[in-house]
Amino acid sequence: MKHPRIEIMDTTLRDGEQTSGVSFVPHEKLMIARLLLEELKVDRVEVASARVSKGEFDAVKMICDWAARCNLLPRVEVLGFVDGHTSVDWIHATGCRVINLLCKGSLKHCNYQLQKTPEEHIEDILSVVDYANEQDMVVNVYLEDWSNGMKDSPEYVFLLMDALSRTNIRRYMLPDTLGVLNPLQVIEFMRKMVKRYPHAHFDFHAHNDYDLAVSNVLAAVLSGCKGLHTTINGLGERAGNAPLASVQAILKDHFNAITNIDESRLNDVSRVLESYSGIVIPANKPIVGENVFTQVAGVHADGDNKSNLYCNDLLPERFGRKREYALGKNSGKANIRKNLEDLGLQLDEESMRKVTARIIELGDKKELVTQEDLPYIVSDVLKHGVMEERVSLKSYIVNLAYGLKPMATLKIEINGKEYEESSSGDGQYDAFVRALRKIYKVTLGRKFPMLTNYAVTIPPGGRTDAFVQTVITWSFEDTIFRTRGLDADQTEAAIKATVKMLNIIEDEYES
Ligand SMILES: CC(=O)SCCNC(=O)CCNC(=O)[C@H](O)C(C)(C)COP(=O)(O)OP(=O)(O)OC[C@H]1O[C@@H](n2cnc3c(N)ncnc32)[C@H](O)[C@@H]1OP(=O)(O)O
């Protein structure tokens, strides 16, 4: 197969929002639609189901008003029902001009959910299609539960398709609604559809119940399907849909397929969706997971140093990311050298040996060592000032009292001068950071980094004296970096991470 052009329809804003616990407010939906269409350049977006709520109506209207201004309106779609004029009117009133009509793709759904005969259902569909066409709307149809339809009632699927293909329906969207298919079945069923209706445009819509969504999507492409439905981070009902990032990478690297996607934006958009949906991206999720471009084993770092021997086509730079080399008990000198290079530090062989031994020792104690910790470890091990401590906390008090706002007072030495400040806050750490910010912004007139993520790890087991690890991500002058604090007390751990950050930015000021 030579360079097939695959159309991507992203349904993060419809099926993705059917993830349990996920709900977007209208301005978030608009922002996501813009990211999908303008940044990622997906071909089409499905942004809602009709009739759901006033909030959904407002969101779709906002998206359509914006899309119309940018000449993108034909690429915005809304799922509608076979309900006479109701869905068409709802969608039309939002300004949207494409309806994805949810028809029943299995006899079971037709008979038992709608309680209609196939003939009655077909008549109802044709009347909605006619009405939508009268309103100058484009109609795509879903054959809901098509996968079970092909298994149990193919004659029903073909009866429906025969009737629908006599109209001007633009696309037929074939969902594996319950995620029951495997790739061999997708090939068998999709080929039957393509053979019987060679002029039809088929989209395939996968669900991930058996962890086969991405494989099934590829089987569909192999079988002549022209469009795919995806979501960001694989959001979607139950086990979710096919994740756009993985689909894009496989289409390109394994099939030479052409899509319109700007893959350099995939990671950033995934992070935005992680934040808006509240669904954390697993660290090992291909392309967008925190760890997927991190080499852990010393042997791998060594191979990369010599001739990039442990890299594949999934180069992190393609996706706006960077390869990292983890520090821990599996590190060898090569990992550590790679991290030191990034920090602009060089060590002789003997120092390297000592620092490597300390990192392995920390790793053995289950401690996470980040690149930002490295200068401290080097200083500590070599007892010289690779990392001079320019900022040190002299004393502080943080308190928590029932019915009162938490307060913090701190005394800190910065470059040999002491400063003292107090603040209240929404929590003890918030009060601490507010007091610090006053010193940096008001007293010293400097910038203070923005905290962009705060992750706490408490070892399982229910011990109240267990060590808590707090990893804080900061954004400062176009740089994103993490610092880590470890303590039996959670606030103390966060404060330790913060003081490390202050020393790092002090270095930035110096340079
Ligand atoms: C493949 C998919 O993921 S489909 C996802 C479709 N989108 C949604 O369901 C969005 C969220 N849903 C909702 O907000 C609501 O369910 C609504 C607004 C659509 C309907 O709400 P209600 O009127 O309260 O109906 P309810 O949710 O209880 O039941 C669904 C009704 O739709 C009917 N229905 C199911 N599929 C279809 C269809 N394709 N076309 C028309 N009607 C349908 C059912 O037969 C049932 O009708 P009944 O009450 O006469 O038996």
From TrEMBL:
The keyword Translocase does not apply. It comes from the Bacteria. Residues 6-267 form the Pyruvate carboxyltransferase domain. GO terms for molecular function: 2-isopropylmalate synthase activity. Pfam families: HCS_D2 (PF22617), HMGL-like (PF00682), LeuA_dimer (PF08502). GO terms for biological process: L-leucine biosynthetic process. Keywords: Amino-acid biosynthesis, Branched-chain amino acid biosynthesis, Manganese, Transferase. Signal peptide: none annotated. Belongs to the alpha-IPM synthase/homocitrate synthase family. This is 2-isopropylmalate synthase. The lineage of its organism: Bacteria, Pseudomonadati, Bacteroidota, Bacteroidia, Bacteroidales.
